[in-house]
Design goal:
Elements: E1 2-12, E2 15-21, H1 29-40, E3 60-65, E4 79-86, E5 93-94, H2 100-112, E6 122-129, E7 134-143, E8 146-147, E9 165-168, E10 188-192, E11 196-205, E12 207-213, H3 225-229, H4 232-248, H5 258-261, E13 267-272, E14 277-278, E15 285-286, E16 293-299, E17 302-303, H6 309-318, H7 325-329, E18 339-344, E19 347-357, E20 363-372, E21 374-385
Parallel strand pairs: 2-3, 4-6, 12-13, 16-18
Antiparallel strand pairs: 1-2, 1-21, 3-4, 4-5, 6-7, 7-8, 7-9, 9-20, 10-11, 11-12, 13-16, 14-15, 16-17, 18-19, 19-20
Length: about 400
């Protein structure tokens, strides 16, 4: 016996997710998680018996629900969105993080499914994200009542071009830890077991992040994802740093349990000054004058093949916070502009960032945007084995 559950498969930016309606899933948490794992074919490194793509960027879930009237911050929103990072080789789902790429697809999904009344040429979708209990504002281009998918906006790591969807993450500042700078300091020194001390910057917007200097790891900063992933000793060291940062930010109680308790966040960024390098997708040269800094990400214990959406906005905001390691490596002449250009393994990604100080001298994020494209790939039913018989 099998059960059938309606689903939509959508690409958002450089990620792909299975979209499910909250009302179609079991209410019981254990049964719900079991159902989701079955849908994805986890645990299995190939996810051969499900919809997962055997890669962290394609093993993602968006659960869409109605407006939560019990949440004061949800007032004026059109729908709720819960993001799940489904583990591939382990029977686990990480509910602690947010995917910026998939958030773009959520905006388009809301228009397709009638959660918001379409308005041409741009429909603003206000989404309450349950992972962070914050609101995302998503601008979706619309024609004849439907999202426009074709356009000339290019996202490195995605074939072709599409219509630009803009997401503003400014409301997510401090959502995971309570503050944009969780420790109140632009730089912290961590004492990492087996590695000694290292300087880091801890910043929380979109998702909580820990940034380190490439030079402090013995890296140039322009290494490709495959090269970094091949260095197993480096990956183990980065996970120890990430665990120590998670403990310092109060996200977990024991740094040694980072892989089990919070595998997705904080995301770790390796930053360095502008430099030229060859991108891993097209083999073209990214020139140092095309970027304001270079960064590589460790996500789910692997090097990100491009650059995460939430990391884009967090890196952009961090580049505006005086004293952070990101601010330190960012091109000086760009520090007065809104646009920040980040060089990643597959090219360059931009974010609009505006940060001010209030009367108390605290940073306030006024704008933190991400431009993405999205496409509806498939809709239909996924068949789930019924284990009750």
């Amino acid at each position: 016996m099998v059960r059938q559950i309606r689903c939509v498969l959508m690409r958002g930016g450089t990620s792909k997710a299975v979209f499910l309606r909250e009302s179609d899933l079991p209410v019981d948490e254990v049964e719900r998680n079991s159902t989701i794992l079955s849908i994805f074919g986890s645990p299995d490194r190939r996810q051969i018996d499900g919809l997962g793509g055997a890669d962290p960027l394609t093993s993602k879930l968006a659960i869409i629900g109605p407006v939560r009237t019990t949440e004061p911050r949800a007032a004026g929103t059109h729908l709720t969105y819960t993001f799940g990072q489904v583990e591939i080789a382990h029977p686990e789902i990480d509910w602690l993080s947010l995917c910026g790429n998939i958030s773009a697809a959520v905006g388009a999904f809301a228009v397709y499914e009638g959660y918001v009344t379409p308005s041409e040429p741009m429909t603003q979708v206000r989404v309450f994200n349950t992972n962070l209990s914050r609101v995302l504002t998503i601008e979706v281009p619309v024609l004849d009542g439907r999202p426009i998918e074709q356009g000339d906006y290019s996202v490195p790591g995605v074939p072709g071009t599409g219509a630009k969807i803009l997401i503003d993450f400014s409301d997510t500042a401090g959502a995971a830890t309570g503050a944009l700078l969780p420790t109140g300091r632009p730089v912290d020194r961590l004492n990492v077991p087996d590695d000694g001390e290292i300087d880091v910057s801890l910043v929380d917007i979109g998702n909580a992040h820990v940034f380190v200097r490439a030079g402090d790891l013995g890296l140039r900063g322009t290494e490709g994802a495959a090269q970094l992933d091949a260095d197993h000793e480096l990956r183990a060291r980065l996970e120890r740093i990430r665990g120590a940062a998670a403990e310092r930010m109060g996200m977990i109680a024991n740094a040694a349990q980072s892989r089990e308790e919070s595998p997705a966040t904080p995301i770790l960024g390796i930053v360095s000054p502008p430099a030229s390098y060859r991108d891993e997708n097209g083999g073209t040269v990214v020139n140092e004058n095309e970027v304001d800094l270079v960064s590589r990400l460790m996500f789910m214990q692997q090097t990100h093949k491009t650059y995460a959406g939430t990391s884009t906005v967090c890196t952009g905001v961090a580049s505006r916070l005086a004293g952070t390691l990101v601010h330190e490596v960012t091109r000086l002449q760009m520090r007065g502009a809104d646009t920040v250009r980040i060089g990643h393994p597959a090219g360059v990604i931009e974010t609009e960032t505006r940060v001010e100080k209030n009367g108390a001298g605290e940073y306030v994020v006024r704008r933190a945007t991400l431009g993405r494209t999205a496409r509806r790939i498939m809709e239909g039913y996924v068949f789930v084995p019924d284990t009750s018989h």
